[in-house]
Design a protein that fits this description.
With about 675 residues, the protein is α+β, with helices and mostly antiparallel strands. Helices cover about 35% and strands about 20% of the residues. The chain is elongated. The structure holds 2-(butylsulfanyl)adenosine.
Length: about 675
């Protein structure tokens, strides 16, 4: 039994390490979690009945004994250097020039790597076993965080078989993947505990826990990026990373070998564009001269190597002053608190306004007018106030309180049970909601009234020339002439555009009415299902849920819309004004994709032009670039930045395989 148990334990350890490798290093898990858990339990039970078999590198021994008093100091055998930073392309070309001059060569190859925003760590392996994990500290001396790092499953306790040096010091970054960070914070908030500020702080804080049991519960991960010494190692950075991967270390799969300055800049631009979609935070990219002999020729200055550069992205978070909190009224009457800020450059643009989301968020974060706040803008997303810096509050500031009435029309504002938002109950009495509803009505994907921009709508409502969308169709030349910055010719053109918009397809009119949660696709489904306004108006919630993509919430909004007298009046007034929508069959046989803009990208099975011609013949425009206005993207194999952008903007993406099915759903039988 003793021999069998020992054999089985060894077998289980190998299996568990194999699954770890598949999961963390190859990112290609072979067994489900349940199988992994079963192996762990079996090993635990063997070790429980044969304590002599327990060894420190056993996967059961990741979470060790008792909390520590503090962290011991570790002297790094080789100092942990830092990196010179650059933001602008010129700084990168200066770096490139210094490198080419130093090496007397025209073209240099680099390993280009994402720069993880986590905590630097140095892992020492002796005889293939993890013996020490140390933080960077001041570069010379760090803290011994071995017990904590051992709890991170992505860090191998034992190397995979190979010809590793007997003393191996691997350096890399411990980080907290964003999904884990978000999940952790949700749980913390639900339990009334303090959430983590951001993934980087989360990683740093988790590593500094005195009780490894606490660290073990934090979702931490690891990527290796170098070794301290090069004895018995490959001769380039790129080959070193591949070697480390073979020995069982996770290495970032987006690492690339590039040659020349332009390729470095392209890598930076590409990582910048896919950054928001990554599961972890990066704050830039790192270029490292690939050949170690070349690195040695260049050497280091003041603790930073001359052969490497961190090319950073503009900061996503900056500090500024919150001047005031204003209330904005949206199309559906939602009152949104908006932060007016001292202008600050963040995420590549100057920001003066940022969202504060809702009353609950403001209370939870305790943000007050006058506070110093952290403003965050990641990718193209709306800037937000991430948090207030309470330590910088020197005087008593007033707490924010959501007004009980709409600041635009004075109607009662109410917070619906279970909803975070407060809404104005004034409906179309409220000028703010009127403006929004008219602006929306005129947009390209709705009635497409060219020349009716936001400023003009504001004037029309403020001058009481237009109260509902139906009033647009009664505007006269004289009335328009009385407006600011409205010449003869523009008035003429606008009236013409309004007149031309009178015969929209039914689905566009539905979309234009601005029913809550009814976007273009839902409007189209409703139009196809019901065919006429009368049929739609008399449908109950249950019948509505039979429509494609319509759930109980949307059904509720649609039913409620048609129960409100003022909405029915608007529809009647539209009819009276001569607005006459077209049934969908008439449209579908002609130009099913009229007014849509498509983008084609990636490798397709047939020449692109064939797809393009088919789309154009259905009335679509085919464009080269993706924007928020793009209707759909047809993405073939190996699609790159256009696909990434579409995903980021939430634009519909179709594969070639999806296309037929999709066209059929749009009433096109033979695409
Ligand atoms: S190389 C001498 N590569 O950035 C080279 N560092 O100041 C030293 N970092 O906190 C580091 N990703 O932990 C390197 N792919 C990467 C990196 C990286 C993140 C961090 C590093 C340190 C800082 C460099």
């Amino acid at each position: 039994m003793g021999v069998d148990a020992s054999k089985r334990a060894a077998q289980l350890r190998d299996l568990i390490e194999h699954h770890n490798y598949r999961y963390y290093v190859l990112d290609d898990p072979e067994a489900p979690d349940s199988e992994y858990d079963r192996l762990m339990r079996e090993l635990e039970s063997i070790e429980a009945s044969h304590p002599g078999l327990v060894s420190p590198e056993s996967p059961t021994q990741r979470v060790g004994g008792t909390p520590m008093e503090g962290f011991a100091e570790v002297r790094h055998r080789v100092p942990m250097l830092s990196l010179a930073n650059a933001f602008a392309a010129e700084e990168v070309s200066d770096f490139y020039r210094r490198v080419t001059q130093g090496l007397e060569s025209d073209e240099i190859s680099f390993t280009a790597e994402p720069k993880l925003d986590g905590v630097a760590i140095s892992l020492t392996y002796m005889g293939g076993l993890l013996v020490t994990a140390a933080t960077r500290g001041d570069g010379e001396r760090g803290e011994d965080v071995t017990s904590n790092v051992r709890t991170i499953r992505a860090v191998p306790l034992r190397l995979r078989p190979g010809e590793w040096p007997s003393l191996l010091e691997v350096r890399g970054e411990i980080y907290m993947p964003r999904p884990g960070f978000e999940k952790f914070n949700q749980t913390a908030l639900a339990a009334g505990e303090k959430p983590l500020v951001n993934p980087r702080n989360g990683a740093a804080g988790s590593l500094r826990q005195l009780d490894p049991q606490v660290t073990a519960k934090r979702p931490l991960a690891f990527f290796a990026y170098s070794t301290a010494t090069r004895d018995d190692m490959p001769s380039t950075q790129f080959a070193t990373l591949n070697q480390l991967r073979d020995w069982g270390f996770p290495v970032n799969p987006r690492v690339s070998r590039v040659t020349g300055l332009q390729a470095c800049l392209d890598y930076h631009a590409n990582m910048g564009s896919i950054r928001v979609g990554l599961a972890y935070d990066i704050d830039g990219v790192v270029y490292k001269v690939d050949e170690f002999v070349e690195q040695d020729i260049l050497g280091s200055v003041s603790r930073a190597p001359r052969w490497a550069l961190a090319h950073k992205f503009p900061a996503e978070e900056e500090i500024t002053r919150l001047l005031a909190i204003d209330i904005q009224v949206g199309r559906t009457g939602a009152l949104t608190p908006v932060a007016r800020l001292e202008p600050v450059f963040v995420g590549g643009v100057t920001v003066t306004n940022a969202t504060l989301h809702n009353q609950g968020e403001i209370q939870r974060k305790d943000v007050r007018a006058g506070d110093w706040v952290v403003v965050r803008r990641a990718g193209d997303v709306i800037p937000e106030v991430a948090r207030a810096i309470h330590a910088r509050r020197t005087v008593e500031l007033e707490r924010f309180c959501m007004p009980g009435s709409c600041p635009e029309c004075g109607s009662v504002a109410e917070q619906v049970e279970g909803e975070a938002v407060t809404r104005c109950t004034g409906g179309l009495v409220c000028p703010a909601q009127r403006k929004h509803s008219i602006r929306h009505f005129a947009t390209r994907k709705a009635m497409d009234i060219e020349g009716l921009g936001n400023k003009l709508v504001d004037q029309l409502v403020e001058q009481k020339l237009v109260a509902t969308v139906a009033d647009l169709f009664h505007l006269s030349h004289e009335q328009l002439g009385s407006l600011e910055r409205m010449g003869e010719k523009s008035a003429e053109n606008l009236l013409q555009a309004i007149a031309e918009s009178k015969t929209p397809p039914f689905d566009r009119l539905l979309y234009a009415l601005g029913i809550r949660e009814v976007g273009e696709a839902t409007a189209r489904s409703l139009a196809i299902h019901f065919g006429t306004m009368e049929a739609l108006q008399s449908a109950g919630e249950e019948e509505l849920t039979e429509v494609n993509d319509v759930g109980p919430i949307v059904a509720g909004h649609v039913a409620k819309f048609f129960q409100q007298d003022n909405n029915l009046e608007v529809i009647r007034a539209l009819v009276d004004a001569g607005v006459c929508w077209q049934a969908l069959e008439e449209v579908a046989t002609g130009q099913a994709l009229a007014g849509e803009t498509w983008v084609i990208t990636g490798k397709l099975s047939r020449p692109r032009i064939q797809f393009k011609n088919s789309l154009v013949s259905l009335g679509a425009k085919v464009s080269e670039s993706v924007s928020a206005k793009t209707s759909a993207v047809l993405a073939g194999d190996a699609a790159g930045s256009k696909l990434a952008k579409a995903q980021k903007l939430g634009v519909k993406v179709l594969s070639e395989a999806d296309l037929m099915e999709y066209m059929r759903s749009r009433g096109v039988e033979d695409f």
